[in-house]
């Protein structure tokens, strides 16, 4: 069994990656329905938390149904990060996670996210300070290194473990690389197979379906997988991967009735959590993913984007269901 301290995640856990503007409570809810073993909040600015900024504080929201859950924080200032970790701890998550992986330019420019990877001593010092500041387990998500010439993840992993982190997720790209570059899992495997390492090592990057999940599991020996893009409009991916790993069989993809049913649940949760206007606006990014591959879908997508009330959206979804029913 894979454990983060006393949190039992099962024999080979599948984790939902923290993704800004994606992994809010409504989306986490539907991913949990289909077997996500652990999930994380959207990443939260340490400065925003300690200033009590409404947007940052709102991201601390979660339901017990989502457990085990980690609150992920990021920042460049050690004192702010320790205060933010303590603030996040008051929300009573299961884990505090530090984001050392975000490649967004405005985050990196401040020396936060993956921007801190060119200053390993500060990275280690910040991690040690957060570990000491809270009672909960501290985990880290990071990348292979700052750039192609500085793939320092083997050293980084050892040093972060030495200061007390209890699990590490490694994204198989360097700071400048984007999803168009295939993830390189070689160094993830090196970290996992390093005899000095004894904490769980999770791999992330290009886990998009059951076949890729099995390949990474079999070839790199990781303790579990973190799924990001593969979950977009596809919360079923957790169930599909688990079924394939257990039985070697691929499940049929969800039909239109199932897609409408689950997207409706996410829609209703979004409206409950954010209010109608914001809930409808912020779920728009998901519609194209939920119905990807359906022919002649553009008119429906336009209607979904233009709808301004919940009844209007529900009518469009009913029309989609009728149009594409077998």
Can you give a write-up of this model?
This protein has 326 residues and is of the alpha/beta class. It folds into two domains: 3-247, TIM Barrel (Alpha-Beta Barrel), CATH 3.20.20; 256-324, Non-ribosomal Peptide Synthetase Peptidyl Carrier Protein, Chain A (Orthogonal Bundle). Helices cover 45% and strands 13% of the residues. It has helices at 25-33, 46-50, 54-58, 78-89, 105-108, 120-133, 153-162, 186-193, 210-220, 237-247, 256-274, 276-282, 284-290, 298-306, 310-324, and strands spanning 3-4, 7-8, 14-16, 38-40, 44-45, 69-74, 95-100, 138-143, 168-171, 201-204, 224-227. The strands form two sheets. It has an eight-stranded parallel beta barrel, surrounded by six helices. A two-stranded antiparallel ribbon has the order 1-2. The longest helix has 19 residues, at 256-274. The protein is globular.
Which properties best describe this structure?
Non-ribosomal Peptide Synthetase Peptidyl Carrier Protein, Chain A; single chain; TIM Barrel; two-stranded antiparallel ribbon; eight-stranded parallel β-barrel; 326 residues
